[in-house]
Amino acid sequence: MVKVKLVNVTKRFGDVIAVNNISFEVKEGELFTLLGPSGCGKTTTLRLIAGFYKPDEGEIYFNEELVNDLPPHKRNTGMVFQNYALWPHMTVFENIAYGLKIRNIPPPIIIKKVKQILELIGLKGKENRYPSQLSGGEQQRVALARALVIEPRVLLLDEPLSNLDAKLRLKMRSEIRKLQKKLGITTIYVTHDQEEALSISDRVAVMNQGKILQIGTPLEIYETPKDIFVADFIGTTNFIPCKVLEYDAEQKVLTLEINGQRVIIKNFYEHADTGAEAICAIRPESLEIYKAGEEPKGKSIISGKIDLIIFLGRTIRYEVATDFGIIKVDTTEKTKRMSFREGDKVSIAFDPYNLRVFIKK
Amino acid sequence: MTSLNSFLRKLDVREHSIQILAIIVNAILFIFILLPIFVLLIRAILTPKGISLDYFTIFWSNSFYREALYATFMAALFTVITTSIIGIPLAYIMVRYDFPGKRFFSILILVPLIMPPFVGALGLYKILGISGVINLLLVQYLGILDKPINFLYGETFLFALGPYDRVYLPHGIVLINTLHLYPLVYLNCAASLANIDPSLEEQAENLGARGFYLFRTVTFPLMKPGWIAGAVLVFIWTFSDLGTPLIVHYFKMLSVIVFFKLYEITAGNPSPVSYVIGFIMVIVAFITLFTSRKYISLRRYVMLFAGGRVTQRIFRPKGIKLLATYIFLITLSLAALTPHIGLTLVAFSDRWVLTLVPERLTLRHFSTVTPWAAPYILNSFIYAFIAAVIDIILGAFIAYIISRKLVIGQSFIDLIATLPLAVPGIIIGLGYWLLFYKVPLLDPLRYTPIILTISYSMRRLPYTVRAAYAGMLQIDEALEEASINLGASRLQTFRRITLPLLAMSLFAGGILAFINVLIEVSTTFLLVVTDRYAPTTWFLYFRAFADPRNGLAMASALGFIFVIIIAVALVIVNKILGARMGTVFRL
Questions:
Q1: Which of A135, A198, B236, B561 has the most CB atoms less than 10 A away?
Q2: C-alpha span between A92 and B514 (Å, rounded)
Q3: Cβ separation of A74 and B483 shorter than 8 Å?
């Protein structure tokens, strides 16, 4: 197994800086995800690791070995492409066996290994089919098997699930995760789907415009985003403008004014000037909704009118029109579901503990 | 070696082997396509006294040569006009109209494509000749004319140019070439017509444009790329055609002058007039190529001819329009079939003099010519096969490096690889004589098969390059990257992944090259000097046709066999390629 390290890597295409001075390290056996919107540089980064591009600046290491000049067919990385890239003129067996044949593995061993992996991915008996005779999910699994059977140092997955329908995507997601854990193979995963990233990764790197904004575990990224972009990109967030009233650097306590009320944030480690503008971010599930006037005393509230009620299955989302724009509130409480109508005047209550504050620079 | 390595590394180059192969291919293309052209250009202006225009003066001072220039130019120009008059409406009808029998006609109108050019002239002999069927009808049987019209031979006076020069039009050549070349204009026009976005015309209609006005202001301008591509090829072809002028005995053409002066090269005393004519042809080819380069490049070819289909505005003509359509198509099909019918009748007729149809039929021409021609037919097949194989290999490689952008200077290769389409065979043949006479292994006099094979493969290379390029674009690059990722080098990937997926396209291109080598005339006539190693087209003119007693009949019989062979080959290809047949004939 292998560690992958990128140090100050930059890649340009003409005037465009696709990957801008990024550094990260992937531990052995880790499933590390590059997450970001289209054009953020995540696929370029993956292809740099695969060797299809050479970095303009910076170094890429596999363990201690510098691989910048190592051509892609010598890197022993296994890549699964977004559209699977299964060769139409070869059977499932031949597709999977390809990498082994190139390595001059003796035929009896090839047969054994291919059969093993087919069983592992649940496609036993289909080795003589052609890709066009398989379903989308099956094709995906063949592509995965083809990359895994060569026992690569690193597994690279480029949005492998984006061509599958929603239910299949969920199923394959956990299958890939289980397989990866079982084989303990260092894996780098690229996706734009933040739910996917959060559900399967050991750690996530959020990217935008060629830069890495934050690296952390799914929990860290979700609960403590370092950046407005990350907060907005991951899950759903409400943004409420506020003002800094006072910052106590000794006690690490920040006092804000939100909606005319004083709110105290404890354990705040960033310096803030009095009177500075800030943005508060809070997730819909951390908000509580009450009929206007029925809220518990002593909580900070924002008033508004219900604009839209959205039924999401297990939650109901209320889009509330307030002085700060539309605020989304999610609730799973069954009793609450029944009692609200569009147009109702409501009070939104929140706990300062759930606020993430971003001081404007 | 380290500096070379760092140089290559800086180019972000992966595989050295591909670079080396590309350099070799570049060298081959340079020596055998570009160099002959340069040699002609240089020799024309390089006199023993240094650079001067003396040779041009020699050429220009002879009124025969001047008139040959005019005649050649007029023949080409008029053929472009006539083929356009046929090809443009034909394209419109076949693309935009739907009517009973359309499928049938769509095959019929392509019939000239299976006829080697001057074999068609043979076929027209007995029908349009002085004592041919048409004249017999008009003069003797119907009494409409007093004297027969000379359809095939001779020339028509057009106008006088200054006090000394008269400009003539070799009408027979125009007639024969029109019948042979209109499919070029038709197919190219049809392809670009089919790619016009319907909403462009609908918008014009919405604003009030209709009928011919709509065609003139919107449709035709959008169709022009295809028309220009076809027109350019027709012009260059006619300008440099050798076979047809020889068959109709019209020797006042530039190509024929070059041909007759060839012996002077082997006699050690090459005539400067040949250089000048070669120079003129190169300039003409370049001018036409340059003005139409946008329409002939690889990318354009693929966009126009191998690209996506746009939903058509199809119209079912009724009444007068339908009648006119049928009249047009039937007349055209009959005209297109005339050479074939004539050829067949002559080949099978025992005696056919001054009668409307042959008096007696026989197979004796076949029995005489076949054993005689057999070795030459075998030669043709061998040449065609080897040339096709060479072209497939080269074409696949060139298309691969161009489409995957693997080497520097790929637009150079792109240009050179499609150049032979527009460069006349006369230039290549003459250039090879000037370059390789007395050069070991390449001398046309002593190593004919080698130089002949080279000229065939170079001249047909564009067919396989284009077919392969179109095929490459349909292969997702990820398929190759997956192979590289799993450990295969680029060369291994090319062999195991790209080539099998390209197989169909390569086969189509190879067949096209094969067939075209079988019927090739210009470089054959120029480079072949003796019977040994001669192919069928040479034999047909210099032996069969030249026979004093039965020349026409035997040449026709051989021509007939040849046409059958080609037709059978096309049927086989059609079975294999199915619906993709059309792409084989587009230019």
A1: B236
A2: 36
A3: no
Dist. CA B186–CA A300, nearest whole Å: 79
A83: contact with B, CB 8 A cutoff? yes
- One-letter identity of residue B174: V
CB contact, 8 Å: B506 with chain A? Answer: no
Give pLDDT, residue B578: 59
Position A111, amino acid: I
Environment class of B497 (CB within 10 Å of its CB; exposed 0-12, middle 13-18, buried 19+): buried
pLDDT, residue B552, reads: 85
Confirm or reject contact between B6 and chain A (CB < 8 A). no
Q: Which of A53, A54, A73 to mutate to test the interface with B (most CBs of B within 10 A)?
A: A73
Q: Which residues contact B57 (CB under 8 A, 6 or more apart)?
A: none
Which are the contacts of B580, defined by CB distance < 8 A and separation ≥ 6?
Answer: B504, B508
Average pLDDT on B164-169 reads 86
> Coil, helix or strand for A201?
coil
Which residue on chain B is closest to A144 by alpha carbon? B482
Distance from CA of B125 to the nearest CA of A (A): 52
Residue holding tokens 């329908």?
A165
Query: How far is B278 from B432, CA to CA, in rounded Å?
Result: 12
Task: Give the largest CA-CA distance in chain B.
Answer: 88
- B497 in contact with chain A, both atoms CB, cutoff 8 A: yes
Write out chain A residues lying below 8 Å of B2, CB-based: none
Distance in Å, alpha carbon of A211 to nearest chain B alpha carbon? 24
Tell which residue, B81, B122, B115, B336, has the closest CA to residue B249.
B122
Q: Which two tokens stand for residue B334?
A: 């009959």
Report pLDDT for B584: 46
ipTM of the complex: 0.76
**pLDDT tier at B8 (50, 70, 90 boundaries)?**
very low
Q: How confident is the model at residue A281 (pLDDT cuts 50, 70, 90)?
A: very high
pLDDT tens digits for range A177-236: 999 999 999 999 999 999 999 999 999 999 999 999 999 999 999 988 988 899 999 988
Cα A101 from Cα A12, distance rounded (Å): 35
Residue B318 confidence class, pLDDT cut points 50, 70, 90: confident
Put simply, whether B267 touches A (Cβ < 8 Å) is: no
Candidate from B15, B478, B485 with C-beta closest to A77: B485
Please, which residues 135-194 of chain A have a Cβ atom closer than 8 Å to chain B? 143, 146-147, 150
Q: Which of B404, B481, B485, B489 to mutate to test the interface with A (most CBs of A within 10 A)?
A: B485
How is residue A280 annotated by DSSP? E
Q: Under an 8 A CB cutoff, do B500 and A89 touch? A: yes
**What region does B579 belong to: left with phi over 0, alpha with psi -120 to 50, or beta?**
alpha
Tokens describing residue B307: 């690209």
In this predicted structure, what is the pLDDT of residue B298? 59
* Alpha-carbon span A170 to B448, nearest angstrom: 69
* Alpha-carbon span B520 to B175, nearest angstrom: 20
Residue B13 has pLDDT above 50, yes or no: no
Reduced to 3 states, what is the DSSP secondary structure of residue B308? coil
Q: Which residues of A touch B10 (CB under 8 A)?
A: none
